[in-house]
């Protein structure tokens, strides 16, 4: 099994390459159909986990996201909107801050925003 390393994160390539595609075939030699199959197989095998993009970590029974980028990914908005939501005080109960660094309890923040939207 081949191990790829991207951004210091090891990614496991699937043991069986896409049907009809040799693992040593250069990308530029693939047909559109072969390329689509390759991409579909990679997505299905879970090579890339969205939780890593959100930078979520499981600690002490809480799901935490760190920083404005993590909050923006969690909420599915831009950094400016995430900063406005944090600065508004709406999710203060879910924010743990020390100096300039902060983490957000993801489950609690989503619950607070869900309840605020119903008002």
Protein architecture, described:
With 119 residues, the protein is α+β, with helices and mostly antiparallel strands. It folds into 2 domains: 3-48, no CATH class; 53-117, Arc Repressor Mutant, subunit A (Orthogonal Bundle), CATH 1.10.10. It has helices at residues 32-44, 50-54, 67-75, 79-88, 106-117, and strands at 3-6, 9-12, 57-59, 62-66, 95-98, 101-105. The strands form 2 sheets. Strands 3-4-6-5 form a 4-stranded antiparallel sheet. A two-stranded antiparallel ribbon has the order 1-2. α3 (67-75) crosses α4.
Overall geometry comes to elongated
The CATH class of the largest domain is identified as Mainly Alpha
Which strand order does the major sheet show? 3-4-6-5
The CATH architecture of the largest domain comes to: Orthogonal Bundle
Number of strands: 6
Radius of gyration: 20 Å
Number of helices: 5
CATH topology group of the largest domain: Arc Repressor Mutant, subunit A
Regions with pLDDT < 50 over 5+ consecutive residues?
Answer: 47-56
Please indicate the count of domains: 2
Helix content: 40-55%
Broad structural category: alpha+beta
Q: Hey, roughly how much beta strand do the residues contain?
A: 15-25%
End-to-end separation: 53 Å
- Note the main sheet: 4 strands, antiparallel
- The residue-averaged pLDDT reads 75
How do the SSEs run, as a string of H and E? EEHHEEHHEEH
Task: Write the SSE topology.
Blueprint: E1 3-6, E2 9-12, H1 32-44, H2 50-54, E3 57-59, E4 62-66, H3 67-75, H4 79-88, E5 95-98, E6 101-105, H5 106-117
Antiparallel strand pairs: 1-2, 3-4, 4-6, 5-6
Helix pairs in contact: 3-4
């Amino acid at each position: 099994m081949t191990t790829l390393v991207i951004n210091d994160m090891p990614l496991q390539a699937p043991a069986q390459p896409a049907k009809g595609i040799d693992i040593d075939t250069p990308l530029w030699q693939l047909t559109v159909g072969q390329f689509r199959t390759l991409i579909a197989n990679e997505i299905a095998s879970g090579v890339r986990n969205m939780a890593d993009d959100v930078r979520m970590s499981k600690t002490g029974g809480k799901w935490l996201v760190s920083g404005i980028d993590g909050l923006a990914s969690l909420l599915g908005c831009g950094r400016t909107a995430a900063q406005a939501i944090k600065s508004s005080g709406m999710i203060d109960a879910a924010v743990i801050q020390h100096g300039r660094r902060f983490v957000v309890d993801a489950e609690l923040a989503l619950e607070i925003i869900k309840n605020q939207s119903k008002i």
